[in-house]
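Workshop exercise sheet. Pairs work together: one partner reads the sequence aloud, the other fills in the structure field after running the prediction. Swap roles for the next sheet.
Pair: D.N. / O.F.
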Amino acid sequence: MVVDGTHQRVYVSDPTGGKIVVTDYNGAVKATLTGLSGVSGLAVSDDGGQVYAAVTTADRIVSVDTTTYTQTASYPVGAAPGDLEVVDGRVWFAHGADFGSLDVSGPEPVVHLGLRGDADFYGASSILASDPAVPGTLVAGGGSYVAVYDVSADGAALRATTYMGSGVKQLDLTPDGKQVLTSWGQGYGYSLGAYSATDLSEQPGYPIEAYPNAVRIAPDGSIAGGSFSWYDPDVHIHRPGDPVPVREYDFPNTGNSSGADTLVDGALAWAPDSSRVFAVSVNTYGTHTLRALTDPTKELPALTVSAPAKTERAKKLTVTGKLTSKTLPPAGTALTVTRTDVESPKGRALASARLKADGSFSFTDTPPAGGKVTYKVTWAGDATHAPASGADTVEVSRKATSLTLNNNGRVYAYGKKVTFTAHLGTTYKNRTVSIYADPFGADKPRKLLRTGKVNSKGNLSATVTLTRDTTVSAVFTGDARYASKTAKSTGYAKVRVSTAVSKHYRTGKIGSKAYYYFRKNTDPVFTTTMTYYKGRAQRVQVQVWYAGAWRDTAAEYFALNTKGKSVVRLEAPGESGIRARLRSSYVNGSSGDSVNSTTHGAWRYFTFTR
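Structure field:
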């Protein structure tokens, strides 16, 4: 992976797919170059106009124009190239346990192979490093050894070589030319190794948790170290000479394992302006992700804010807090303070708070509004610190107002239009009430009927057509001095029920009651129509006139069809002179649901004759 700072592009090679993917700094793909089987090492030319790519399986190095993303040349090098570095215009490439150079400055390309000299990389593939600020210097490594070369003239003159320990995946040269860093130090600890670029004597390195597997140095000297880690940070940023990281980045888990995504070996690169570190991670599905890690050279401070849990309105309170970071800004640094409340929902700026030498701060305020009050404190950051902010909330007391709603508990006929009136007591500024209707039953949601200001008497009304038991709510959301309030009233609605009689041969009165007359061997049929609800059943009750009173004989439930109909046929008694009556009812809770109030239909009187 290399970064073209002139055009703000990132080039990532994919050896398996035989392609190079080009993205912008946000990771959006701008081009894909294909047909490059086994492509591996990448390097940017000194002028930024070309990106060189090692096409390993074709024993070639190709150049790609950084403006058009088109291949401009292909150079056979007589060996399988791997890692690439550009030093003073020449392209240096690893091949096996050795390295060579490609010079394209003349009329014909010039290739030199086998330039490692007396350094022995013990059969391991070579890795290379250089820095544009250090002309004439190339670092090469492989196996357990690293070497520094002077490449200012033809060929490569060995300056120094040393044992560097096994497991090194990447190495780099500091821009001041004084140190070589490796992705794994000597010994048994986990660290980036550091060596003098003059004689490769070991120097203090940079401790890193887990398994170090990458190292890259920014033009300003900042160091990015990478590690293979499921449960610890993956990228570690150090200031030169400081063993404690100034910032760390932890990849998320996008796979199916308990551990998070991990850094691909050697997959780190700096933007030339040091504004970003680019990293490639991989998850357990084998999916690779390019990650742009912003503000890597800036510490990531933490800012905490602590306010009282509750207080009285118009009473002074004190808010405290602390800014913590690896290093602290100077005492007196200004912090932005914002108060958000019901009267200032977008926030109101307060006087700045000032940091003390230990990073603590405090300020006082007298909240003018009650309810939830949030104090947010923000520091904009500086050249070495990222911005930070924190907030805390205070519950500020408010007075209670009265809110009532009429008609609670009343029962109405089916379909009755009922007016519910809310009455609001004393408030500060807000005189708005909202009235909602919530019919019984999960199939009908709560519905806003009306929102508006109460009249001069404090009243606001809304009308509900009651076809079910319905809870009506009046809601006052509160204001700066009075707390929110809700009042509820439940209006109960009966069902619509009627019963038709058939199979009788005439009607007539017995006393003051109208009767249906049936032959003693005819089965009476009663058809009930009732307000439908899924799963609803009607209750049929039959009584017989006996010994001067109506006596219960039977009561049974019968299901309604989807049209609200239920047909009941009674068995004929076979004898005359019997007087009876029948009633259809909806019984809340027993008729299959509880969305209406119990409703009894009219009695139907009938008698049997010869």
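Discussion prompt: The CA atoms of residues 306 and 417 lie 53 Å apart. What would you look at next?
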